[in-house]
Task: structure prediction
Amino acid sequence: MKILLHICCAPCAIYPFRKLTSDGYQVAGFWYNPNVHPYTEYLNRLNSVKLLEQLYGWEIEYLDEYDLEKFLKAVSDNPEVGIRCRQCYRMRLEKTAEFTKSSGIDLFTTTLSVSPYQDHKLIKEQGERAAQKFGVRFLYEDFTPGYREAHQEAKEKGLHMQKYCGCIYSERERYDKKAQKPPQAMARTPGSAKST
Result:
């Protein structure tokens, strides 16, 4: 069975590609990430996924639309962690579900669930909603067991290693100490300021 894998970045794609393939799926990757800021970071991540495709020979489709304004409009009224993440997941997973449907594939998943810093409950919720909206199925899988090893492999292969989740707010939280939450609060809000 074929499955479409939404890819948030090259390091996070390594383990899911392998795990899904070993589970018997025919995996096709899909790039769509309008949240990434600044544009130079977006290009670094996009080019790194293209390098990943060349290195491993994986099939990856690209929706190279830098919809930054659309993303900012969706989250600007309430950019708090969790609320903005819900919108970010929704945008990316809806586009993935739509592409899944138009490609004649029945099932999709995402590399977002590789990171221990993301909100897995929200990912699952938004994936299932997107699947229902477009009449396809969403496979939630906790890919975190492969996070460290895949990121080490990515470093060794020279793939771009981002320092923050992707959006302008997470970039600020990563570098602006005053904008960061206390460590206890951050531990309860995955996806806040650490990298994916």
